[in-house]
């Protein structure tokens, strides 16, 4: 086990005494409720405590086995203190035993009592942890379910510019109740109820719930399928209730509404009063002219087809701008690996290192992972899903510093360690870059002495609220200064300066993997599962620690619309 997976090597003496006392009382059916809760909290929060429990149960099982052996052998080796102590020492359980501590074969009743006690302890612990999950509503196990405050999802944009006081939204984000202010461009929202709204700048939409919104000014096209019937839009001078249809809405800066019904039926309540007007396909209503059975102008509002066409054009332009802007970094002599994730075809299984002078072995070999849509339409990414998905690569040499940077869309933080880039080995100078269980990004660089490491965790980045969104993550380490840094979307989020860095510790890569960790060696039947769940679209590795401005520039070049 590497140092990155533990904080200490053993439980404190105080915790060990407490744990032993609680487990003893549990076996004797004497564990008080406050102590039961304390035991529950310790076992949930401490991997060392859980391991201690397993060792305790294992010790009991070993003692029972040794008792069997000693009883069967009678006055032979197992019946002597020295013989039994030899068995215990071989099992790692007898280091602290004194001669004469165990002198005779255990009677069957003692063995049965010990076995029953251990079984009871295991069963009771099972009930301790399983039953509260089903029945209890308090305590540390009754963890609150993750909640979502969203009412809609932003599904598409074209040239969207957002007002600073109305949120900066990204495609894929859940949008909660509140104001969405689009200054220019197009943006399409799909409400959880099924209704969709295509906003055109300059517009302000205030989301009230999954079934209601307000428009103070702007223009939009609204589609309401049958199961979202009753979706309501409020304006300064009217209430519009959709009965399963498609309509357009314009609200002037002065608050005057103009309703165009393209299909189906809409109810309009002028002045938000009780008087109702029913408008059907082709009809139009505004506050100045009233209702008319004709006049709806579908061409005056952006529809899904035009949105997609404009979006595709915008994505092509964005991709070209990215490729031109990134070229400077791909030709940088400090670059070791530059993967742009641009396959030659759908079955291409190679990530080509775009650094002009890079040796062939630095090309990546794709294993398992499949090509999918990247940050824009027409841009590819690799989708990592199964425990076998990975990209194999190799980098030769030793370096004083390193920068690792990638665009990622996290689909889930499923394991304690979720690989972004890991060297096959974990020896002196090896960097390990991964997302840990909390949702933070971690960079560790191994030190030979004592198996320790330089390690820095970012703040928590990935959780249910932002899964499926594209993030640019970058981490740097310079052994000459001892400085480690994490960057997210071009902004530095954490920093650590190591006071003492071993001068012998230079960065060594060798063989490594994107999205996974290592291969089984020799007779080893399996490896630890540290596979990444999500998409990756661009990976850069430099042999120097890039400056904050350089990392910000890489982000600006490659950020999605």
Question: Can you lay out the helices and strands and say which pair or pack?
Answer:
Layout (H helix, E strand, L loop, with lengths): L12 H15 L5 H13 L1 H27 L7 H10 L17 H28 L14 E13 L11 E3 L1 E14 L4 E14 L2 E12 L8 E4 L2 E5 L3 E6 L5 E7 L1 E6 L6 E4 L3 E3 L3 E3 L11 H27 L4 E5 L10 E2 L12 E4 L2 E4 L6 E5 L5 E10 L1 E10 L6 E7 L7 E6 L3 E7 L6 E8 L9 E9 L4 E6 L2 E7 L9 E8 L19 E9 L5 H11 L3
Parallel strand pairs: 5-6
Antiparallel strand pairs: 1-2, 1-3, 3-4, 4-5, 5-8, 6-7, 7-10, 8-9, 9-12, 10-11, 12-13, 14-29, 15-16, 16-19, 17-18, 18-29, 19-28, 20-25, 20-29, 21-22, 21-28, 22-23, 23-24, 25-26, 26-27
Helix pairs in contact: 1-2, 2-3, 3-5
Structure description:
The chain has 561 residues and is of the alpha+beta class. It folds into three domains: 9-135, no CATH class; 150-302, Jelly Rolls (Sandwich); 315-558, Jelly Rolls (Sandwich), CATH 2.60.120.200. It has seven helices and 29 strands. The strands form three sheets. Strands 1, 2, 3, 4, 5, 6, 7, 8, 9, 10, 11, 12 and 13 form a 13-stranded mixed beta sheet that branches. The radius of gyration is 32 Å and the shape is globular. The chain starts with 12 loop residues before the first helix and ends with a helix. Residues 1-8, 66-106, 109-113 and 127-142 have low confidence and may be disordered.
């Amino acid at each position: 086990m590497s140092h990155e997976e533990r904080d200490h090597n053993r439980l404190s003496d105080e915790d060990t005494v407490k744990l032993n006392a609680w487990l003893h009382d549990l076996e004797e059916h004497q564990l008080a409720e406050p102590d039961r809760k304390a035991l529950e909290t310790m076992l949930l929060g401490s991997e060392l405590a859980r391991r201690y429990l397993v060792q305790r149960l294992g010790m009991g099982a070993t003692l029972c086995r040794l008792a069997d052996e000693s009883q069967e052998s009678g006055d032979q080796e197992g019946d002597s203190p020295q013989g039994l102590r030899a068995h215990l020492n071989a099992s790692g359980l007898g280091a602290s035993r004194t001669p004469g501590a165990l002198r005779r074969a255990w009677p069957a009743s003692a063995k049965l009592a010990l076995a029953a006690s251990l079984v009871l302890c295991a069963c009771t612990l099972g009930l301790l942890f399983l039953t509260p999950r089903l029945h209890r509503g308090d305590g540390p196990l009754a963890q609150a379910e993750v909640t979502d405050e969203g009412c809609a999802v932003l599904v598409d944009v074209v040239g969207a510019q957002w007002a600073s006081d109305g949120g900066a939204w990204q495609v894929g984000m859940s949008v909660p109740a509140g104001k969405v202010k689009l200054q220019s461009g197009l943006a399409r929202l799909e409400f959880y109820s099924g209704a969709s709204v295509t906003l055109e700048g300059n517009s302000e939409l205030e989301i009230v719930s999954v079934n209601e919104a307000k428009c103070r000014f702007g223009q939009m096209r609204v589609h309401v399928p049958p199961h979202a019937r009753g979706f309501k839009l409020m304006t300064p001078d009217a209430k519009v209730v959709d009965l399963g249809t498609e309509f357009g809405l314009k609200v002037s800066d002065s608050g005057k509404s103009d309703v165009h019904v393209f299909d189906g039926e809409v109810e309009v309540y002028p002045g938000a009063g009780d008087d109702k007007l029913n408008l059907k396909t082709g009809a139009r209503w505004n506050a100045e002219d009233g209702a008319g059975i004709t006049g709806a102008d579908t061409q005056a509002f952006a529809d899904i087809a035009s949105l997609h066409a404009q979006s595709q054009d915008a994505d092509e332009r964005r991709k070209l701008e990215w490729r031109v802007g990134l070229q400077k970094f791909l030709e940088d002599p400090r670059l070791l690996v530059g993967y742009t994730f641009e396959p030659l075809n759908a079955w291409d299984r190679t990530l080509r290192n775009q650094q002009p002078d890079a040796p062939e072995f630095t090309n990546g070999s794709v294993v398992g992972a499949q090509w999918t849509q990247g940050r824009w339409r027409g841009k590819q990414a690799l989708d990592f899903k199964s425990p076998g998905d990975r990209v194999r690569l190799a980098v030769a040499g030793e370096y004083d510093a390193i920068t690792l940077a990638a665009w990622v869309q996290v689909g889930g933080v499923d394991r304690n360690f979720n690989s972004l880039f890991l060297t096959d080995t974990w020896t002196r100078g090896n960097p390990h870059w991964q997302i840990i269980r909390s949702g933070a990004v971690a960079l560790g660089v191994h030190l030979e002495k004592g198996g320790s490491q330089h390690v820095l965790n970012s703040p928590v980045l990935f959780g249910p609220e932002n899964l499926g969104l594209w993030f640019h993550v970058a981490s740097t380490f310079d052994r000459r200064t001892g400085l480690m840094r994490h960057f997210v979307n071009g902004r530095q989020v954490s920093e650590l300066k190591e006071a003492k860095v071993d001068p012998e510790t230079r960065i060594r890569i060798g063989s490594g993997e994107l999205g996974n960790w290592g291969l089984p060696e020799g007779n080893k039947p399996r490896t630890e599962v540290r596979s990444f769940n999500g998409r990756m679209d661009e990976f850069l590795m430099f042999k120097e620690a890039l400056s904050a401005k350089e990392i910000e520039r890489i982000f600006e070049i490659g950020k999605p619309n």
